[in-house]
Amino acid sequence: MIRPILPLLLAAAILLGGNGVLGTLVALRGNLEGFGTDLIGLMGACYFFGFFVASFNAARIIRSIGHVRAFAALAAVGATIPLIMAIVPNAWVWMGVRALSGFCFAGLLMVVESWINEISKNADRGRVLAIYRVIDLISVTCTQFLIPTVGEAGFEIFSIVSLMYCLSLVPVAISNRTKPQIPENLKLELRTVWLISPLACLTTLAIGLTNSAFRLVGPIYGVEIGLSTSSVIIFMTMGIIGGAVSQYPLGHMSDKLGRRKTVLIATAGAMLAALFLSRQHSDAETLVFVGAFLFGAFAMPLYSLAAAHANDRAGSGQYVLISAGLTFFFSLGAVVGPYTASLVIQHFGPPAFFVYTCAVHGFLALVVMIRIKSRASVPVEQRSRFVSLLRTSPVFFRMARRISRDRPTSDQSSSQGQNKETTDGH
Question: Any idea where the domains of the chain sit in the sequence?
Answer without folding.
Answer: 1-179, 186-412
